[in-house]
Amino acid sequence: MARKNLFNIVEADNGRPAFDPPVAEPSPPMQPAAAVPSADPIDPDPRRRQPYREGKRAVMFFLSEEAFSQMHVILARQGRRKVQNLMEELIDDWFRRENAPRVVK
After folding, report:
1. What are the boundaries of the region Disordered (predicted)?
2. Is residue 11 included in any domain, yes or no?
3. Cα separation of 68 and 75, whole Å?
């Protein structure tokens, strides 16, 4: 027996005005700059992580379009909560159910 679809994005997102992107004015043509050797060459270390990623590992999975939309609508209703926070909460709940050590925040 197929599951009943309980989520309809059209009904959930009916109070928001349509997106109207700003119109950018064309910039004047720029003069080519002379190549000047820099005293401090920019050579970012590709292994260096952003501060909020320090000590963390990436986990990735794919959702259907419907599940992805539903997740973001629910997150928006909860005050623009971050997907990162949601996933940490879900993993913590899973660890609790499996009697594993909880995620330390």
Report:
1. 12-52
2. no
3. 11
How many domains are there within the chain? 1
pLDDT tens, position by position, 35-82: 555 555 565 666 676 887 888 888 898 999 999 999 999 999 988 788
pLDDT > 60? residue 85:
yes
Buried b (16+ CB within 10 A) or exposed e, 49-63: eeeeeeeeeeeeeee
59 belongs to a structural domain? no
Euclidean distance between CA atoms 19 and 31, whole angstroms: 35
In-domain check, residue 36: no
Q: What secondary structure letter does DSSP report for 52?
A: G
- pLDDT for 1 beyond 60: no
Average pLDDT of the chain, as a whole number: 78
CA distance 72 to 15: 16
Q: How far apart are CA 73 and CA 80, in angstroms?
A: 9
